Amino acid sequence: MGGTGGIGAMTATAGSEALTTLHKIFGYEAFRGEQEAVIEHVVAGGDAVVLMPTGGGKSLCYQIPALVRPGTGIVVSPLIALMQDQVDALRALGVRAGFINSTQDFEERRVMEAEFLAGELDLLYLAPERLRLDTTLDLLSRGKISVFAIDEAHCVSQWGHDFRPDYLMLSVLGERWPDVPRIALTATATRATHQEITQRLNMPSARHFVASFDRPNIQYRIVPKADPKKQLLAFLREEHAGDAGIVYCLSRNSVEKTAEFLSRNGVEAVPYHAGLDAGTRAAHQSRFLREDGLVVVATIAFGMGIDKPDVRFVAHLDLPKSVEGYYQETGRAGRDGLPSTAWMAYGLNDVIQQRKLIQSGEGDEAFRRRAAAHLDAMLALCETAQCRRGQLLAYFGQDADPTGCGNCDTCLTPPETWDGTVAAQKVLSTVVRLQRERGQKFGAVQIVDILLGKRTAKVIQFDHDQLSVFGIGEELTEGEWRGVIRQLLAQGLLAVEGDYGTLVLTEGSGSVLRREREVPLRKEPPKPVTSRSASSGSAGKSKAKTAAAELPENLLPAFEALRAWRAEQAREQGVPAYVIFHDATLREIVTVWPSTVGELGGVSGVGEKKLATYGEGVIGVLAGLTGSATPGTAASELSDGPSDDPGAWPEEPDMEPEPDDWA
Ligand code: ADP
Ligand code: ZN
């Protein structure tokens, strides 16, 4: 803690200064959740480790202390490609922000350094690989620093999915600047990562703030994989036409193919993976941030730190390697709090492929064990018959509503379970016969063909129609048998071995074969359900998930007119539309219907700078819409639901919504 003066008095002033900053600069009414406590603690000079889900509001936790405390806040972030946008967004708020990174030329860097040394910056963004340079550390020690913010702090975790070696050296910050408070922030929440962050960043006396990790506006759904690209297309067409979203695939090849497939079928999509050159990657990322409704198909190399608030869906075509990774990726949907979907297609091949990857991958035995434990947790999530959100929160050590969340697939359409003991025995017996009688091991395809009694070329070649188990499984379909095998793998009652993904027994298999345990299984849907609207009739479909969801009909033209105006502004300034105003702010503007610039200032998300820059423009758009610039009259008509007066909404042909937005 900073030691000068009475801490109590300082805290009280700091508190009100923080609140004033929140109102004036950011235009927000009140702090959310833990924000106030974190900010108060850091402004008073304390170290903090902050765990908050994506969209929880981490940025304010360091931006406000940087504004309130004297000096420049140094933000350590691994995301060079996003620094320009982050800084643009802050500058649009009137915050003096800058960055130093390798995308700048010498002169640009020199200007930044001079501004920092002259005390003209509130916030300075740096990548860790730059911070470690002696020249950078020297520069920093010649200026005044208000706070160190270590963003994406889980990158320090060597077992994590985003490890960055340069993060390890950040522990020197505390040694070199013992009086400057440090705040480490992440959306990765397991206790292990939490501990690792605290240790490796050397922050033993930091206070810990753990927010709820629930993201109630995201609907979690995991569907059986049949024809994933087609399933994805149906999902997008039925529920997210015209929406921005991210589709994750494991390989570069499937990224390319999926992006192509979507584009061919009328969904504008671009690929993003490490194999593309830097220019293409930057261009695609920039389009995603700037355009409305673009889909990015990506490997996991895309998305960290993307603060686009209106990502309406995140889809996984392949199984993620861990629940942490999955939760971070899906968390990129719906940061604006509006309804969004996390959708995943998952099948037997995912399990086999991931198990193989772990076995043939690099790393020692301990590494492999950890990877396997991560995969097991992910599989348990996929196979659960319980509330997905409950399972996710439990994984992060948090409580969930025991009666279910009502907004995941298992809550919306509870899966049926069945006693799969006999089916499991049939699969395991087949594996046993092949091994004992023939000394052979085979993969899932051959096992299923044997169970179904299919005389394929390969079955005949190996005389497998002579086995006593041949044809003993005709009561189930091929898809159902694959489902049984997948669930046995997920439950650890069967294992995968070698490069060919052959199936072998585990320690648990014996108890099933000896009938010592039952094997409850989830029923496979008769044919893959592509979406909720397909399974629950029209009810699902009527709930549009676009930004306009739940706005009264009579406000839609105004909302759309403001979006068109915003797009124009964004184009002129070369910034993403959300840098001007978020969708959520536009929604509130049309709901409040301010008739003066002063009234507009009361809307959440409209701070002083934005009011000065855009106030007249917004009021002008609204006035143009009513066809009457008389202040006050429109507000009362509109706040009372649908207007009876059809004349209140003259046609504005130039501002017609894009038809797709409402599909
Ligand atoms: P994170 O970095 O934790 O993912 P952000 O800092 O980007 O989250 O915040 C998520 C969204 O919530 C942003 O659109 C931000 O402007 C908004 N937000 C944050 N704090 C508040 C607040 N106190 N009141 C209203 N909106 C807020
Ligand atoms: Zn649920």
From TrEMBL:
UniProt keyword Transport present: no
Q: Where is the Helicase C-terminal domain?
A: 228-382
What GO molecular function terms would the record report? DNA helicase activity; hydrolase activity
Q: Which PROSITE patterns match?
A: HELICASE_ATP_BIND_1, HELICASE_CTER, HRDC
Q: Where is this region: Disordered?
A: 515-548, 629-663
Catalytic reactions on record: Couples ATP hydrolysis with the unwinding of duplex DNA by translocating in the 3'-5' direction
Q: Cite the record's Low complexity compositional bias ranges.
A: 530-548
What's a Pfam family in this record?
Answer: HRDC
Which cofactors, if any, are listed as required? Answer: Zn(2+); Mg(2+)
Biased region (Acidic residues) positions are 651-663
Q: What InterPro entries does the record tag this protein with? A: DEAD/DEAH_box_helicase_dom, DNA_helicase_ATP-dep_RecQ, DNA_helicase_ATP-dep_RecQ_bac, Helicase_ATP-bd, Helicase_C-like, HRDC-like_sf, HRDC_dom, HRDC_dom_sf
EC number annotated for this UniProt entry: 5.6.2.4
Q: Which residues form the HRDC domain?
A: 552-632
Name the SMART domains on file.
Answer: DEXDc (SM00487), HELICc (SM00490), HRDC (SM00341), RQC (SM00956)
Query: Helicase ATP-binding domain spans which residues?
Result: 39-207
Superkingdom of the source? Answer: Bacteria
Q: Which UniProt keywords apply?
A: ATP-binding, DNA damage, DNA recombination, DNA repair, DNA-binding, Helicase, Hydrolase, Isomerase, Metal-binding, Nucleotide-binding, Zinc
Point to the regions of Basic and acidic residues compositional bias: 515-526
Family of this protein: Belongs to the helicase family. RecQ subfamily.
| Protein's recorded name | DNA helicase RecQ
- Show the taxonomic lineage: Bacteria, Bacillati, Actinomycetota, Actinomycetes, Kitasatosporales
